[in-house]
Amino acid sequence: MVKQMAQMRLISIGGGGFTHNSHPDLDAFCLRHTVPAPRIGYVGVASDDDQTKLDRFYQHFDHHGAALEHLPLTASGAYVADWLKSVDLVYFGGGNTARMIAHFERNGWSTPLIQAARRGVTMAGVSAGAVFWFEWCLSDAKGNGLQPLRGLGLLKGGICPHYSSEPLRQASLKTAVRENTMPISYAIDDGAAMVFGPETVIDLCSAAPGAGCYQISSGQETAHQTRPVSLGERHLGLLD
């Protein structure tokens, strides 16, 4: 019988981890937020089930003694609901955020995913797989530059990955928040991760020198950015 966590845990990784073949501490961080010897599922919708990423999933987590399973693109909503009852941790790979969200909505995946998250299945993901839970994310998935994209809305506010590695994201996010096309938003560097509960941040991870997490909020004239935070700093000062 699958043992789930006591509360909702959504782990958002700004960039890195096994799918990028970098920052392995991020993957270890995800494992610390689920049960021992977990059953881990992988969802590769955002990359159209890129075979390299799928192979890396099995190669990496096989060394941790976990039971591994991949959710096929063709799964129905009913299949997804049953599948989610047998996993402890679900990892969502990166890719095209808009395509992933559209797939979830079109095939009836959104509701069972949200229900599973609320009952304590640990959800983790990188890039597109990190941001779709929020009301809004900053994305270039539609091919017209970085634009606000509506997510599933399980978590309030907005979010942006790759904050350190793609410089245009910093200016674009600050502008979007200042102009109220994005709400107050989190931004996560490559090599960093945040863990969200229903209403607050639970934990943080900095797996690379200088990698941090930020909150962008609207000031009188410009958006502002908080200092970087790292694993072990439980109170962020981000939600005050």
Question: Could you name the key traits of this structure?
Answer:
Rossmann fold, 240 residues, globular, 7 helices, single chain, alpha/beta, disordered C terminus, seven-stranded mixed beta sheet
The strand count comes to 13
Binned strand content: 25-35%
| CATH class category name | Alpha Beta
Assembly state: single chain
Sheet with the most strands: spatial strand order: 3-2-4-5-1-10-11
**What's the gyration radius in Å?**
17 Å
Order of helices and strands: EHEHEHEHHEHEEEHEEEEE
Mean pLDDT: 88
* Total domains: 1
Structural class category: alpha/beta
Distance between the termini: 39 Å
Q: Tell me, what's the shape?
A: globular
**So, CATH architecture?**
3-Layer(aba) Sandwich
Q: Kindly report the name of the CATH homologous superfamily.
A: Class I glutamine amidotransferase (GATase) domain
